[in-house]
Design goal:
By secondary structure, the protein is an alpha/beta fold. The protein has eleven helices and 13 strands. 40% of the residues lie in helices and 21% in strands.
């Protein structure tokens, strides 16, 4: 906000002893500038404070005094040192879980943003987080972020996913230089050489590291669809590991669809990336151990399973064989003449088959004879001897010449086809 954003100034008035207060132009008073309402000035100051990035989201150290916990749940106190004091407001929606940390006379690190309460013109720090001063600014910021992300559910244990037992595509996000990548590759080559390694390089330290790590995670999922992802970095100071406490990295890990193993620093180091990941490994080499099963152990397990399966199959086969034998023995006891009956059935079946064949032959011979007789009696056979059949167009046969009239159309059927004709003249006697 600039001075051009201020409202149009009002003209000052000078009161007189009379009933009226004439308007006086500021030009009549050398050095007198524009005059503003108090509310406009306080609003302007508040907006200046709240839009100044140096005064928004800042850590301030000091000693707490005038501590007052209101019945509304809000907490008010003064943060001071030897040369200054600042009023603080710690509202109820922010101080949950932190109320018992405050103690008058103790030194604290307080995180918040400066603002101005316009109605009273009070400058205040709107507090979001407090920590005892002795833990250090970085650790205090770490705990503030941790509390915020926990409230959002980014570290919820219920969303943690199990790692795949036999991954075939392992994504790795780390620096392309240094020993971390080499250590992971060496362990996986020894333990689980079946896996393909998909390396997505990223800076792991410095201001550009956090966005690069977050982008590397997204690129791996989008372009390569790995079964699991390892996010790794070697040891270092809290400052050197700070990229893994940045919000872009934490949110990228939380949003990933692929199980993620975080292996940042040494075993004693903890980052917010560790808390957001599905599994935390104490070192990058340990992460490779967790991701890649030992091929020797897998081979032994397969052999053991095969041996157990063989034993179970053999036992079941023996049990079923014994059951069949028992049934055979019971059948032999209850029907001892089964072989003789089987032979009798076979003999009867053979005789029946021969009788059926003889009867079928007789039926075929008789059918042939009947077919020949029918063929001899068929009128079509008569046509083959030079005769013809006269039919009316409707299909009825004409059996007498007297039944036809002159001019009537008829159809004559011969042995090799039909011809149409017309009757002329009267029938002969």
């Amino acid at each position: 906000m600039t001075t051009s954003d201020l409202p149009t100034p009002i003209r000052p008035n000078v009161e007189t002893a009379g009933d009226t207060a004439p308007s006086i132009d500021s030009g009549d008073f050398p050095g007198l500038g524009a005059v503003y309402p108090v509310s406009e000035v306080t609003r302007y100051l508040r907006e200046l404070l709240e839009h100044d990035r140096h005064l928004s989201g800042v850590w301030i150290s000091g000693e707490i005094s005038n501590l007052n916990a209101a019945s509304s749940g809000h907490i008010y106190f003064t943060l001071k040192d030897a040369r200054g004091a600042l009023r603080c407001a710690f509202f109820r929606n922010k101080n949950v879980g932190q109320r018992d940390r405050l103690e008058a006379g103790a030194a604290y690190l307080v995180f918040g943003s400066l603002s101005l309460y316009e109605q009273r013109g009070d400058l205040s720090l709107i507090v979001e987080f407090v920590r005892p001063e002795g833990i250090g600014p970085l650790q205090a910021e770490f705990e503030r972020r941790r509390a915020r992300f926990e409230d959002e559910g980014l570290f919820d244990p219920s969303r943690k996913r199990a790692l795949p037992r036999f991954p075939l595509r392992v994504g790795i996000v780390t620096s392309p230089t240094g020993s971390v990548l080499h250590d992971i590759q060496t362990v996986l080559a020894r333990r689980w050489p079946l896996a393909s390694l998909l390396v997505q390089p990223a800076a792991v330290q410095g201001p550009e590291a956090a966005p690069m790590i977050a982008d590397a995670i997204r690129r791996l999922e989008r372009d390569h669809a790995p079964d699991v992802i390892i996010v790794a970095r070697g040891g270092g100071s809290q400052e050197e590991l700070w990229a893994f406490n940045e919000e872009p990295v934490v949110r990228a890990i939380h949003a990933a669809r692929t199980p993620i193993v975080s292996a940042v620093g040494h075993e004693t180091d903890t980052t917010l990336a560790d808390l957001a990941a599905d599994v935390r490994a104490p070192t990058p080499s340990a992460a490779a151990e967790l991701v890649g099963p030992d091929r020797v152990e897998v081979s032994r397990d397969v052999d053991a399973r095969e041996a157990r399966a063989t034993v179970v199959f053999t036992r079941r086969l023996a049990a079923h064989t014994e059951a069949v034998d028992r049934l055979h023995r019971r059948l032999d006891r209850r029907a001892p003449d089964v072989p003789r009956l089987r032979d009798g059935v076979a003999s009867t079946t053979a005789r029946a088959s021969r009788a059926l064949d003889a009867a079928l032959a007789r039926r075929i011979e008789r059918s042939s004879m009947l077919a020949e007789r029918l063929a001899a009696l068929s009128p079509l056979a008569t046509l083959d001897r030079g005769y013809a059949i006269v039919q009316r167009p409707g299909g009825g046969a004409v059996t007498a010449a007297a039944n036809l009239e002159a001019g009537e159309r008829v159809r004559i059927r011969f042995a090799d086809g039909r011809r149409d004709a017309r009757i002329e003249g009267a029938p002969d006697a």
